[in-house]
Amino acid sequence: MATMENERASRFPDAELKARAAWHYYVEGLTQERISEILGIGRIKVHRILSAAREEGVVQFRIRDSVVECVQLEESLKQRYGLSQAVVVPSAADRSNAPLMIGHAAATYLADNVNIGDVIALGWGRTLKFAIKELPRRPIARTTVVSMLGGLTHAQPLNPTESAWEFAEKIGAECFLLPVPVYADKPEQRDAFMSQRSVQDVVFRARRANIAVLSVGSFSNDSPIANYGFIKPSELEELQAAGAVGDILCHFIDAEGRPVDHEVNRRVCAYPLQELSDIPNIILVSGGQEKVAIMRAALANTKISVLITDEDAAKGLLGR
Questions:
Q1: Nearest CA among 253, 246, 244, 242 for reference residue 276
Q2: How confident is the model at residue 157 (pLDDT cuts 50, 70, 90)?
Q3: How far, in Å, are 101, 145, 173 from residue 140 at the CA level?
Q4: 274-285 tens-digit pLDDT
Q5: What are the φ and ψ backbone dihedral angles of 307, each rounded to 5 degrees?
Q6: Distance between terminal CA atoms of the chain?
Q7: Are 215 and 124 in contact (CB under 8 A)?
Q8: Ranges for the Sugar-binding domain (predicted)?
Q9: Whose CA is closest to 199, among 223, 177, 171, 174?
Q10: Within the chain, which residue ranges are assigned CATH 1.10.10.10?
Q11: Of the N and C termini of the chain, which has fewer Cβ atoms inside 10 Å?
């Protein structure tokens, strides 16, 4: 039986096979048996190539080797959307693990690209939460992290303020938070919140950022914005009817990347969406098939510099 397993050939070349197996095992946390099913090889071969990946240094708390198809997608995304850089990770075997896979890649990118003196404006989302969790603890002098969103008054696993604070702790940065809720009850309350001097000071600091790290949200049933209760189900239906395809910084936008005309958008306590492209380096960290429409919308109307995503979203963005 072992001999028969070893004779099974994969559709991937050896180097790519090793990289894919490493992603599924070390990042997604799949069993070797499940990996053998996904890659079409025997369990003994899975064990052997994972051992080889460790011995050859493919795995060094990060996965060094690239997947050929992902590299090709990266080049196509750069050309299509005018990106300075794209990072594409293999699709997760379990789609619910996509934020984990993308977050791991984002952590590696940020660890390599945040430098002394950087001011980082931070959005929120499940994928960014994973990225910050995976980020190595390494103090970087004179750095600043600024949250671009108000916080949640009811403690939740995802909170813009907690994400900013955790990121700042990892790199030894100063941290500035918006001391207001994500959504005000009424537009006039939002205007009052955002006019406070302490809030204006944080927005001013975010305007000085040279890096913004963002994610986007869809209308899927498991999206945080749909589950946390600060937007009514009826309002979500109205937003979709008005043409919204998802949100960026809790502003709901249409397929062209423009804010939809709805009261919810007039209640957001966040960095002004119309000023987002003034930040010179914007990193968009998001993926999964359900995010393709909102990612395309964000790319259409915001000057994204770097996209970190997965194969499923990359293929969707490229129409494949």
A1: 253
A2: low
A3: 25, 12, 7
A4: 999 999 999 999
A5: -115, 125
A6: 38
A7: yes
A8: 67-318
A9: 177
A10: 2-55
A11: N
Can you tell me the distance from the alpha carbon of 10 to that of 248, in angstroms, rounded to the nearest whole number? 40
Token pair in block for residue 29? 């946390």
Assigned CATH topology for domain 68-317: Rossmann fold (3.40.50)
Residues 6+ apart with CB under 8 A from 61: 136
| Measured distance CA(208)–CA(33) in Å, rounded | 50
- The pLDDT, as a whole number, for residue 81 is 97
Q: Copy the structure tokens of residue 14.
A: 């050896």
One-letter identity of residue 94: D
**H/E segment holding residue 301:** helix 292-301
Asked if CATH classification 1.10.10.10 holds for the domain at 2-55, the reply, yes or no, is yes
Residues of the chain with CATH 3.40.50.1360: 68-317
